[in-house]
Amino acid sequence: MTHRTTLFPFLMLLGGIVSPLNAQTAPNFQVHDTKAPEEISEISRLYLEGKLVATFRLNLSHTDETQTITMPLGRTSMNYALCGEITILHNGHPETHSVSSAGTLHHPEGHLLEAVGTQHFTDFFLVDYDDAMTATHHRGPALVCALPNS
To answer: What strands, in cross-sheet order, belong to the sheet with 112-118?
Structure first.
C-alpha cells in the first residue's frame, strides 16, 4: 500500500514534467460569421476535407459567432466547403437561399477567416482580409453540400 501511494505522486510529477514537453498541439484557425442586416436567420456548416468541423446558427438575437477550427496534424493546405440556408427579408417577404461553395485553405493556422455571402446570398465563401492567399474560392456548388444528411 505504501509503495502505491508514494508512486502516484511521483507519476503525477513525472507526468507534469514530461507531458507538456511531449504534447503536440494541433494548429488552429478561426472562422467568424456575421448576420447581414437583411438576414433573418442563417444556418451554415463548414467542412474540411469532407468532414463537418463547425456549424454556425445565426438569428435576430444571435448575430455573430466565431469558432476555433482545429486543423488535421501535418496539413498545411486543405479543401473546405460551406453549406447552409440563409433566410433574408426581400421586398417584405422571407426568402430562403441554399448556399454552397468550395475552396482551398493555404496555411490558415493562426488566421481569422470571415464567412462572406455575395450575389444576393447565393455565393458563400471564406476570406482572410489580411492575407488574400490564405483562402481561395472555387465558384460553383460544393459536392459535399449535395450529399444527403443522415
So the answer is: 64-70, 28-34, 112-118, 123-127
pLDDT tens string 84-134: 999 988 888 999 988 889 999 999 999 999 999 876 777 789 999 999 999
Number of Cβ within a 10 Å radius of residue 128:
17
d(CA 123, CA 9): 57
- At 141, list the grid cell: 456548388
Residue 53, judged by CB atoms within 10 A of its CB (0-12, 13-18, 19+), counts as: middle
pTM of the model: 0.78
Cα 132 to chain centroid, rounded: 17
Asked if 41 contacts 47 with a C-beta cutoff of 8 angstroms, the reply is no
Check if the beta carbon of residue 81 is closer than 8 Å to that of residue 142: yes
Give me 125's grid cell.
Answer: 465563401
Residue 148: what pLDDT?
Answer: 55
Q: Residues 108, 126: contact at Cβ < 8 Å?
A: no
